[in-house]
Design a protein that fits this description.
By secondary structure, this protein is α+β, with helices and mostly antiparallel strands. The chain is about 35% helix and about 15% strand. Helix 2 packs antiparallel against helix 13 and helix 3 crosses helix 9. The radius of gyration is 21 Å and the shape is globular.
């Protein structure tokens, strides 16, 4: 039994079905363990109070330092939310609303793991995709020197040999042309030689999902991932009715406007707003449901998405000599956004707009931070320190509160 699981048992955690509850606000103390739409985790007030005060302290300091206009953090475990807290406003204007669990954030590269990786898990478990098959099996147009050697696994671990990026939005004028150019891009190196984090590889993985499933990527995810998990707000291209809930991102010099309700990433915009590398909008409530599914072995509220073996496979490091990458996911390495205390089997990811997820099965813990740090400019780089400080403070508080494991107990 993990230390945090033993902690849960000792503290007699109860899950109470309640009605919709208020979101974190200026007057809503994080120590109350606010719900994620109807679920509240009861824990002794001192522990929740310390955790809530710690989370609030990190985010309040970051907002005072102008790391972002607003942010929303959710800390929880497989049963539900322990602490959630919104700080600042969704835009720099003082009249803008405070972020809450229903605020829609541009997920940026969290799209890769929230959407595309989950689809890959489902399709590989169903036997519809072989991770070690060449990409050309599913996309015959994926042609060029040494590209026949590139496998789906290479794309998922960012070791395909593809370059990190190219300005599709400048090189093409239609989504179809942008998609075709991504697939036609030549390799920089042989596959399996080095890890280069590649948006192009993720774009191609999204096309594999579409080709195998016979559905557009946004349709597939809505039907097979977001719908079953009750992620009711997660979507590409939120409509005008949702605009008041959307946190604005950058003033984009290319589009010559302040971006709100459309994807921040220029290539995703050129792809029509729907891509596997960026484009999803989601909320604290919905992302918490996804992380709980992972911590529950692929099942949430009686709905099974994938099995525990598939989760283990996708969240395990694939080649530690090459990198710390799992399949789609990243893992702690002591210098990334996981901070200094999380270690494997934890897994997570970040998004360029200021979003991040970390999940630690050994502690039965998830840490979600959603921000729009690129508002009004992507030159604001303070988010890195905030991510690591938040992860560290959460782990430190819960580890100190957890009882020693049996192996650490003094023999009688």
């Amino acid at each position: 039994m993990s230390r945090l699981a033993a902690f849960d048992s000792t503290l007699r955690v109860f899950v109470l079905a309640l009605g919709t509850t208020a979101c974190a606000s200026t007057s809503h103390s994080a120590a109350q363990a606010p719900s994620s739409r109807g679920i509240i985790i009861e824990r002794p007030a001192p522990v929740i109070s310390i955790l809530g005060d710690s989370v609030r302290g990190v985010l309040d300091r970051a907002r005072a330092d102008s790391a972002f206009p607003g942010a929303f953090a959710v800390i929880g475990n497989r049963r539900g939310v322990l602490v959630q807290y919104g700080v600042g406003t969704i835009d720099w204007a003082p009249s803008s609303p405070r972020p809450d669990e229903n605020t829609l954030w541009d997920m940026a590269s969290l799209t890769k793991v929230v959407g595309m990786t989950t689809a890959m898990m489902e399709l590989s478990e169903a036997g519809k995709i072989d991770l070690d098959a060449p990409v050309a099996r599913y996309l015959p147009e994926f042609q060029g020197p040494n590209k026949e050697r590139v496998t789906v696994r290479h794309l998922l671990t960012h070791s395909s040999g593809l370059p990190a990026w190219r300005p599709l939005y400048k090189e093409t004028v239609t989504p179809a042309a942008a998609r075709a150019l991504a697939v036609a891009t030549a390799l920089d190196t042989l596959p399996g030689v080095r890890m280069v984090y590649s948006d192009l590889g993720a774009i191609i993985l999204g096309q594999i999902v579409e080709r195998v499933s016979g559905e557009a990527l946004d349709t597939y995810l809505a039907r097979h991932v977001f719908g079953p998990l009750g992620m009711t707000s997660t979507r590409y291209r939120p409509g005008p009715d949702l605009l008041p809930r959307v946190a604005p991102t950058e003033y984009d010099p290319w589009r010559q406007r302040h971006i709100r309700g459309e994807v921040h990433d220029e290539n995703a915009y050129a792809l029509g707003g729907v891509s596997a590398h960026a484009g999803l909008f989601s909320t604290g409530h919905d992302v918490a449901r996804l992380t709980r599914m992972y911590l529950n072995g692929g099942t949430l509220d009686g709905v099974r998405l994938v099995g525990p073996a598939t989760i283990h496979r996708f969240t395990s490091v694939q080649d530690s000599v090459l990198s710390n990458r799992a399949l789609g996911w990243e893992t702690p390495n002591g210098t990334n956004s996981a901070g200094h205390l999380l270690n494997r089997p934890a897994f997570g990811h970040t998004g360029f707009t200021g979003t991040s997820i970390w999940v630690d099965p050994s502690r039965d813990l998830f840490v979600i931070l959603l921000t729009n740090r690129v508002n009004p400019t992507r030159q604001n780089l303070r988010i890195g320190a905030v991510r690591t400080e938040l992860a560290d403070v959460v782990v430190r508080v819960l580890d100190r509160a957890a009882p020693p494991s049996p192996s650490q107990s003094t023999p009688r």
